[in-house]
Write a structure and sequence with these properties.
alpha/beta, Rossmann fold, two-stranded antiparallel sheet, 6 helices, 9 strands, 39% helix, elongated
């Protein structure tokens, strides 16, 4: 019994280190998305029941569960095995497990051919790589929601200004946020918050 407590503490310490360092070593530290921002992103994308939703770097699964609650088939891809486990457990515990699939691996290596909506809360350091990946893998007509990151050379379809959330449709037209704002001012694009 006296050896059990140190063993449990060691396992917990190792899991804690994996929780923090695997995402950092893979490139982007885990930063949870607030519930209000998740809802804003899903609203901006117009996510509908029956659609297939991908979360690239799904973390603990909170975005997947929100998408599943809207009736979408939610697919998360996560490089951290600990985060994958937590996301799967959360989905099961919330009753969304039947609509949520969590895959372990690097999302750059996964096929997105059936995606209706793709979600990414990334970092500007990986913007060019993500842009190339999506240009090659996102299906025609798919919607891409990005939090905090706008993509140069791509004109968004919509922007949630307060949430700093950008919506693109593939293939995105040439342009940028500035060209979107000019069109919005002229009344040529839909208005968003």
């Amino acid at each position: 019994m006296t050896l059990l407590l140190p063993l449990v503490l060691l396992v917990l310490a190792i899991l804690g280190l994996l929780w923090v360092f695997v995402p950092i070593l893979s490139g982007i530290p885990w930063v949870p998305t607030r519930s209000a921002r998740i809802q804003q992103a899903l609203d901006l994308a117009g996510l509908q029941a029956g659609e297939t939703f991908y979360d690239l770097g799904c973390g603990d699964g909170r975005v997947l569960i929100a998408a599943a609650r809207r009736g979408a088939r939610a697919v998360g891809i996560e490089i951290s095995p600990i985060h994958c486990l937590i996301a799967r457990l959360r989905a099961r515990l919330t009753g969304a497990g039947g609509q949520v699939v969590v895959r372990w691996g690097n999302f750059y290596r996964f096929d997105l051919h059936d995606a209706d909506v793709i979600f990414w809360y990334g970092h500007s350091r990986y913007m060019a790589k993500m842009q190339a990946h999506l240009a090659a893998k996102a299906p025609h007509g798919a919607r891409f929601v990005s939090i905090n990151i706008d993509f140069p050379g791509w004109q968004p379809e919509a922007i949630h200004k307060q949430g700093l959330i950008f919506l693109y449709r593939f293939p995105p037209p040439a342009g940028d946020v500035h060209s979107f704002l000019l069109l919005e001012e002229a009344g040529a694009v839909r208005k968003n918050a």
